[in-house]
Structure formats: structure tokens, C-alpha cells
């Protein structure tokens, strides 16, 4: 089946499947008490609406016009048969608001969605180091608008609480949290536990459909801020839920995650549920029961019950009450079938993304381990692909693949401190209904960074002929651009 965007509602997903199958799929409308049906959640941004995925990648450390760490975003456009052009966007690009300044960090975080409901996906770009008036590092969020030729022009969104913010736009996530079929944008600062929800109904003049805030207490009195935001429908009620990955600087409780269910009024903090700790999450229906499951990556070496040294992935199964901490699977590098073994500093689970890579109708999981040492090459990094079970009941270690830069089909070679797997992304670049895999290597060439797109073939192999580097994307290689640190999803 074709992949649908994470922010697609169940009704929209059903309509899309019917369109793709020529209406030959028979569906029975569920009653109010019936369990919800299967739901596709693989991401698929399409900025030029050509039916093939486009992938935005941050390079927030890029020099622009001689300004250090002004920041840039690279968009790799999908095309029939493979990987298309890569285009760089900065605040000095035509139509992008503002101008490149030292330390802006344009692209520090990214999120996509059709914010103005014109049929073209748009890209929200965090600029947390932006000086706003006299507020140093006040931060901002800009939306670059989709069009038939790709991203074109942009708008700065108004900070709804300018007196309360520093580094606004440091964390972003797009989803339909209130079920009105419009894409909302969740914005965090990284410095507080408060998340601003900008409701759908975005206009190119900067207006939105409204504003609210939500706060999940990270831990006791030591709360510091939000590390990551993610979304999905874990309780199957048709409203996208918000997952908050929080952190604090205490050894006793360095991390806490919260599931905040969506509702007609948006994320409902009063019903928040604390989840197992982890640095990053993704959501998708891995066991095909109609509820999104929450996949939590725990990359540190201890602190999670049952986790092997080197990191772990926990799958918390969704249900009517949301994700269940007690009903879960755990996979580590010591799980049967998974290549390698858990070792201190591997950071297995530091990044992850779900998608159907082999085209069998089941979700697979790509797991980054940027700290992996391979054949004595320190921190060269590695990526593991965990496949969905053939019966659709969840993920398995059986048949898992390990990818390094010495793996046939992966460009370049293993080198010290490449940090392959610093981010990972799954998208159908060529429109063949199999998800392709993109690997970030933020340490490549001394911090220049790189992205390696690998196309998924019918044979089950993954192949890439070249990487995307700052030079190939017309970015300056001065300093440490860190291309591949973050993909929009």
C-alpha cells in the first residue's frame, strides 16, 4: 500500500486507499463500539505534489554569507526511478524571510504538513537562535510553502508569547490534534516544559487558526525542557496525540516521556500518561490492531529495566487507554537475530523511524546507533533494520540487517567519528510503494555531515550510488554544517 502521512486521519486514510485501489476494497463502517481498523502512519512529505516523497534535512551549523552557524535546510526531491535534486534553503534564499545571521541555527528542527490546505506539503523551520527585536536568541518559526516547483517563499509565524520565550522554534511537530482535518503545529523551546499549539488554518500573512498551550511536568521541581515532540493516534479515537520527550539535568531522572491524548480542543494535558523514558520516539501500528504503538529509543547504557548496555528499543502497544508501559516488547543488540551485541557507548536507539521497507504491508523499524565501533573504527556508527513479522503481530529481530559504510550498497567507508545513524528516515522517494532509507552521518568529513539515500529494491536489497554532502547541495563546507543531524518527520 502507498504510505500516508502521519497526520492523516483514519477517514482520509480510508479514502486514499480506496482511490489507490480503484474502489475495489470493501470496507464496513465501524459502529461506535467497534475496534478501529488498521491505520497507515508512515511519513511522506510531498512539497511539489508529484506523488513522490521529498525529504528535508537540517544543516543548522552552516556558514551563510560568512555568518557562522546561520543555518540551512537541504531538501532532496524524489523522482521516478530514484533520487532527485537536492536544493538548499537559507535565510538568504529568495522569498525566505529575514537574513542569515551568526548563530541563528536556521533548520535546528523541522516539521512538515499542508499548513495552508492547498494540496502541497509545506515545511516548518525552527530558527531558535534568531534575535527578535531586542530579544537575543528569542527564536522564530518560519513556514516555507509548497508549490508545483517545490518549496517557494516563506512566512514568519508570530510568537504567541514573545515575553516568555527564548529559543522559540527549537522543537517542532505537525499533526491534527483536534480532529478538524487541519494541520496544527506544536512548538517547543527546549528550555521550558510548555509547548505552544498553533492551530490549523495558517495563512501566508502569518495568521493561524488559534493558539493554546500544553504542559507536561517533566519531573518534580527540576523540569528543564522538551527534547523532542512526536505524534500519532495511540488510543484510536481519531485525534492525533502528542508525545513529549523531556529532559532534565539531574542524574536521578535524566529523562521522562509523556503521552498527551488529542481531543476536540487539542492535546489534553489533564489526561497525560507518563511513559518509559527514552530520548526519541516514533508512532505506528506495528501489530496492525488499529492503534498506533509508541516506539521508544533508549540510547544510554543503563537505567531501563532489561535494557542491555548500548541501548534498547521498547515498543509500547497502543489501545483504548493509550500506550501501555506494561504491554510492550523490547529489542536490543542482544536480541536473537539482531546483528552485533550491546556495548557501552553504542547508542542503539538514539534515532529511529518506521516504514514498510520490504513492501509486505507490515511496518519495519530503522534504528540508529551512531556510537557503534565497527572493526576497531571508533564511533563510525551503524544502523539496524528490524522487520515486521510476517503475520503482522509486531517487530522481530529475525532477519535484521546491519548497515555500515562498509556494507555493499552504502556509499563511502567506515571512518572514525562519522556517527552514521545520527538520524534516520524512511520515505518512498521513487513512488514504488516500498519505503527507502535515508541515513544521516553528522560527523562525516570532520563535521561537514552527509546524507545517504538507499533505495529499496524488489530483491530486498538497499542500494545507494552516492551521498548528499554540503558541496553537492551548494552549502559552504566552512566550520561544521552538520548535514544529516535531523530529518523532517
Description:
This is Integrin. GO terms for molecular function: hydrolase activity. Keywords: Glycoprotein, Hydrolase, Integrin, Repeat, Signal. InterPro entries: FG-GAP (IPR013517), Int_alpha_beta-p (IPR013519), Integrin_alpha (IPR000413), Integrin_alpha_N (IPR028994). The chain is mainly beta and 489 residues long. The chain is built from 2 helices and 27 strands. Strand 26 and strand 27 form a beta hairpin. The strands form 7 sheets. The protein has a 4-stranded antiparallel beta sheet with strand order 4-5-6-7, with no helix packed on it. The two termini are 19 Å apart. The longest helix is centred in the first third of the chain and has 11 residues. The protein has a domain of 207 residues: Methylamine Dehydrogenase, Chain H (7 Propeller), CATH 2.130.10.
Walk across the major sheet and give the strand order: 4-5-6-7
Main CATH class of the domain at 282-488: Mainly Beta
Distance between the termini: 19 Å
- Helix-strand category: mainly beta
Radius of gyration: 21 Å
* Percent in strands: 25-35%
CATH topology call of the domain at 282-488 = Methylamine Dehydrogenase, Chain H
CATH A-level architecture of the domain at 282-488: 7 Propeller
Spans of 5+ residues with little confidence (pLDDT < 50)?
A: 1-43
Helix content: under 10%
Number of strands: 27
What's the average pLDDT?
87
User: What is the global morphology?
Assistant: globular
Return the string of H and E elements. Answer: HEEEEEEEEEEEEEEEEEEEEEEEEEHEE
CATH homology superfamily name of the domain at 282-488: Integrin alpha, N-terminal
Contiguous helical run count: 2
Largest sheet: 4 strands, antiparallel
